[in-house]
Amino acid sequence: MQFSLWLSSMLLFSANFVFASAFVAPFRTPFLRFSALQVADSFADSALTIADAAATLRGETIVVKYGGNAMTSQDLKDMFCQDVAALQNLGIRVVVVHGGGPQINAMLEKVGVESRFEGGMRVSSPEVVEVAEMVLCGSVNKEISSKICSAGGQAIGLSGRDNSLLQCTKQINKDGIDLGNVGAVKTVNTKLLQDLLDMGICPVVSPIGTGIDEECDVAYNVNADVAAGRIAGELKAARVLFLTDIAGVLDKEMQLLKSLSVKDIEDLIEDETITGGMIPKVSYATSAVQLGVKGAFITDGRVPHALIKEVLGGGSDGMGSGDGGTVVTL
């Protein structure tokens, strides 16, 4: 609805602008007449690009990992939910998987539960998982789904424990450190997600998983990036987007690398262009495309309307606007 209103208003503005320019043309300078034509041409180009992208992705599924500054800034939060609603109204199926680290940290401090990280992963005792589940599956999850609906979309909030959506086993740290109840996703209940998507509903998933068999009542804390990548792969999604607080993958001169293959990423890790905390981020992206996702975006979530810009800004090839991150393909 919001996107349709925007598109209608832009068309009306463009038509009025061109009409007014023609009416007063005898009294205007050639420069002003040229500027009016530029505005009209620019709008037409943008509209055609959006139409091509929407036609290509109509009926396809995209998965979005939503986190970072895009979740903590009220303005960016509103824009994200507007973007989801707009994509739905264009016939694109959207799954949102969200994080909530800052909100979990605040609640852990409030209730006096200690927490620490090992290798970028939160060590998750049963007490930590209980707090994480309360925060993620409660206030955070319901706020996102509610805001998408308020923006004109349809959304339902889910926990990874609902109908065994994310079935997990205990994740073993490569360094032998016990991470507690951190889950490795083994199975995704794709039927639940497909049924909701078929009804035109966006599943909003909080990454708290459930155990398997005799551990079916055990709750596991799952990394949101891992959950999003696995869900995208199991759904054979057209796109997966990881909204982050970084510009994308940078070269050694700190210039954005707009497009990379899996082999490119392997080479960049080997020559230490990609190091530290960026390695897990690109690993989630490469895992997703290796599972069958057509394109994985490491997207700068600090950019206003980052989601809709990257999904629709690339036109029919769908490989992003080129302005807000890095696209990873096979």
TrEMBL record:
It comes from Phaeodactylum tricornutum (strain CCAP 1055/1). One of its GO terms (biological process) is L-arginine biosynthetic process. The keyword Signal applies. Its EC number is 2.7.2.8. InterPro entries: AceGlu_kinase-like_sf (IPR036393), AcgluKinase_fam (IPR004662), ArgB (IPR037528), Asp/Glu/Uridylate_kinase (IPR001048), Glu/AcGlu_kinase (IPR001057). Pathway: Amino-acid biosynthesis; L-arginine biosynthesis; N(2)-acetyl-L-ornithine from L-glutamate: step 2/4. It holds the Pfam family AA_kinase. Residues 1-22 form the signal peptide. GO terms for cellular component: cytoplasm. This is acetylglutamate kinase. CDD domains: AAK_NAGK-like. Residues 61-299 form the Aspartate/glutamate/uridylate kinase domain. PANTHER family: N-ACETYLGLUTAMATE SYNTHASE, N-ACETYLGLUTAMATE SYNTHASE, MITOCHONDRIAL. Keywords: Amino-acid biosynthesis, Arginine biosynthesis, ATP-binding, Kinase, Nucleotide-binding, Signal, Transferase. One of its GO terms (molecular function) is acetylglutamate kinase activity.
